[in-house]
From TrEMBL:
Identification of the protein by name: Phenol degradation protein meta
Keyword Signal (UniProt): yes
Provenance organism: Acinetobacter pragensis
Phylogenetic lineage: Bacteria, Pseudomonadati, Pseudomonadota, Gammaproteobacteria, Moraxellales
Signal peptide: 1-23
Keywords annotated in UniProt: Signal
InterPro entries assigned to the protein according to its UniProt record, in alphabetical order: FApF
UniProt superkingdom: Bacteria
């Protein structure tokens, strides 16, 4: 028998890890929706790289959630990438780590909370292949429940948590086609497996997520693109082992621009969400800065 969960179950909103992304338990998750865009499937040569992401996300409604809902997230996510000189199965080996710093303001039905601290730590390893104009990446990523988390209570049902309080394993593939005519077709796809939140006995469902980008190089420094992301939850959430029938989805699209020089680049984008189910609905602005040491 399906267990019915009242709207009060949505009062807890957790923040992202690599980006603001809302799905699964109480509308929150850790996949970096929209973070990647142009040349997402092309790994750089051996060396050390610093990627800095900044995101501002605002949502003023929650599909199938509370009547009055406002969420503002500002996140800064430094990501250190080390590309080695080792090759396995013909692919170049690399590692990365990301530690989000999150400022989250949440208001639901007249109740509000605000927190600013570290989110959940992300660790990953990857292999990259190149063949002419084609580039591929295969990766495995782990999101560890290291961020600040407090269990909601009857006295404090609204908590702006910065961690999810459960771990995630995520296989990832990415692809880029970049011919000499200046076009850049890129995508990054993932599938997430979540364990149970021991404090709430809530197990978030498995889900597919992906970023996409269609760009064009105007000159040696500037690229323009249409970018976005898609999210689709494939299995329902469970509470105490019972299927509660909650599945989220969203699609986002918007413009992007990138400027690159010899050892650095910066990309900016604005994405608007649509086709939302069982999640907050909003818009996001992102900046991505890459520096090669």
């Amino acid at each position: 028998m399906k267990k019915i969960i009242p709207k009060a179950s949505f009062l807890l909103l957790l923040a992202l890890a690599a980006n603001s992304a809302f799905a699964t338990e109480n509308g929150a998750d850790s996949f970096a929706l929209g973070a990647e865009g142009m040349m997402a499937g092309a790994l750089p040569p051996p060396g050390l790289y610093l990627l800095n992401y900044y995101q501002n996300y605002h949502a003023g409604s929650f599909d199938q959630g509370p009547d009055s809902f406002h969420l503002d997230v500002n996140a800064f996510i430094p990501r250190l990438v080390w590309m080695t000189e080792h090759n396995y199965f013909g692919g170049q080996l690399g590692f990365y780590a990301a530690q989000p710093l999150v400022d989250l303001r949440l208001s639901i039905n007249g109740m509000s909370d605000h927190n600013a601290a570290f989110g959940d730590l992300i660790l990953g390893s990857m292999l990259g292949w190149h063949s002419g104009h084609h580039h591929w990446i295969g990766a495995i990523e782990t999101v560890l429940a290291t961020g600040k988390y407090d269990t909601p209570t009857a006295f404090q049902p609204v908590i702006a948590n910065l961690g999810k309080n459960y771990n995630t394993i995520r296989p990832i593939i990415a692809y880029t086609y970049a011919p000499e005519n200046g076009f850049d077709l890129s995508t990054k796809l993932s599938y997430s497996f979540n364990d149970e939140n021991d404090d709430t006995h809530y197990k978030s469902g498995e889900y597919f997520a992906g970023d996409y980008s269609l760009g064009y190089k105007l000159n040696n420094h500037v690229k323009l693109a249409i970018e976005g992301y898609a999210f689709k939850q494939m299995t329902s959430d469970r509470v105490n082992g019972d299927d509660i029938g909650q599945k989220g989805q969203v699609l986002a699209v918007g413009p992007a621009i990138q400027y690159q020089d010899q050892n650095w680049s910066i990309e900016a984008k604005y994405l608007k969400e649509t086709n939302v189910e069982n999640r907050p609905e909003g818009h996001t602005g992102l900046l991505k800065f890459v520096w090669a040491f």
